[in-house]
Structures are given as C-alpha cells and as structure tokens.
Specification:
There is one protein chain. With 213 residues, this protein is an alpha/beta fold. It has one domain (20-212). Helix content is 44%, strand content 12%. It contains 8 helices and 5 strands. It has helices at 32-44, 60-81, 103-112, 124-129, 141-151, 161-164, 168-184, 196-205; strands spanning 22-27, 50-54, 90-96, 116-121, 193-194. The protein has a 5-stranded mixed sheet with strand order 2-1-3-4-5, with helices on both faces. Helix 3 (103-112) links the parallel strand 3 and strand 4 (116-121). Helix 2 (60-81) packs parallel to helix 3 (103-112) and helix 7 packs across helix 8. The radius of gyration is 21 Å and the shape is globular. The N and C termini lie far apart (65 Å). Pfam families: RloB. It comes from Rosistilla oblonga. InterPro entries: RloB (IPR025591). This is RloB-like protein.
Length: 213
C-alpha cells in the first residue's frame, strides 16, 4: 500500500472540559470592592464558579459600559474558539449611589444588556458596616465612613477580607431585611440599602434563577 493509500487517522477531538460557570464583576472602586469580592471567592472555594473582578471602572454609566464590552468580548471569543466556557454566565456591576449622576441611565443600560447591578446607597461602606451592626438609618457617605472606623480604626479603602469573613451571613441577612423594608414602603433602593448581598449569594452558590436567590 502506498503512502498516499494509507487510511488517515481520525482527527483528534479536543479534550472535553466540563462547563464551569463564570461570573464577571465590574466595580467602581479600584481597591475596596475588588479586595472584598476576590477575598470572598477565595474563601468560598466554590468549585461551581470562577470569578473575575475588574476594579476602578469609574462612574456608574462607565462601569456598565465596561461590563458590556467585556461581556461581548468574551462571547465573541467563545464563538470564535467554539468553547462556551469562555463566555460569562452572569455579569454584575457594583457601584455606589453617593453623589453620582446618571444612576437611572446606568441601570437601564444594564437591564438592556442582561447585566445585574449591586448598588449601595449611599456607598459600599454600608455593606461593610452591616457585617458588624444592624442598619444605621439614613446616613451620608462621610458619616458612614466615620461609623465604620468605630469598628475598624485602621479602615481605609484597602481591606483584609478575613476580618469580614465570619460576619458575611449576618451582613446578608441584614441587607435582605433592608430590601424587604423598602419594598414594603414602595421605596426600593432607598438610603440605606445595598444589593451586594445578592451578588454574594451568587458567588457562594453559583448562578441561580431569580426565584432561587
């Protein structure tokens, strides 16, 4: 049999990789939120998810725009390489109300692109405060920062997640209770409130349907 007549070996199929849900988080701050979510992901060691955190994306509209771009880039790469593992199953934006303009426009853009939002009103320090104490009533950013330092005298924008780790369940419960309170008075997202607890649940349990969060 000539060299050309030899039967060809079947093409080698790429090794099978079990689908692993990916979560993208784009945050306002370059330090606080990123350190918190990366610390949480390491602590949970959830084999069901991988978490990518992009920090320092600016004001709410810029954050959502950046998340949209990264989501689309990942989807294009997944199609190009025929690997669904490369796309994001959920994309989240975490930002403060604070004194930012364009919150409503940012939320609308997020919804139009199937991006979730975790908004803290007035700021992320509310979420951190809830690890140690119950809801503080309506507060401004500067007052909350001062209050948080009463628990953590050395607090700055860089955090040590191990300090917060034991208190995450209480923070989630307190934040969820705040959401329920505001919904009962038809004022969702009012000060004080934070949607970070929903994102924390996703990191802990993996992407779920809305009814399961």
């Amino acid at each position: 049999m000539g060299r050309r007549d030899r039967p060809r070996k079947p093409a080698r199929r790429p090794a099978f990789r079990e689908s692993l849900p990916r979560i993208l988080i784009v945050t306002e701050g370059a330090e606080t939120e990123r350190a918190y979510f990366e610390g949480l992901a390491r602590s949970e060691k959830n084999p069901l998810v991988t978490v990518d955190v992009i920090g320092g994306a600016g004001v709410p509209r810029s954050i959502v725009q950046r998340a949209k771009e990264l989501k689309n880039e990942a989807s294009k790469r997944a199609r190009r390489e025929q690997d669904d593992n490369l796309q994001y199953n959920e994309v989240w934006c975490a930002f403060d109300v604070d004194e930012h303009p364009g919150i409503e426009a940012a939320v609308q853009m997020a919804g139009a692109n199937e991006i979730q939002v975790a908004i803290s009103n007035p700021c992320i320090e509310l979420w951190l405060w809830l690890h140690f104490a119950d809801q503080p009533g309506m507060q401004g950013r500067h007052k909350l920062l001062k209050m948080l330092k009463s628990h953590l005298p050395n607090y700055n924008k860089s955090i040590d997640f191990d300090i917060y780790k034991p208190h995450v369940p209480k923070a989630c419960a307190r934040a969820a209770k705040l959401d329920q309170l505001h919904e009962s008075t038809n004022s969702p997202g009012a000060n004080p409130s934070t949607g970070v607890w929903r994102l924390v649940r996703v990191i802990q349990k993996g992407p779920q349907s809305d009814g399961q969060r």
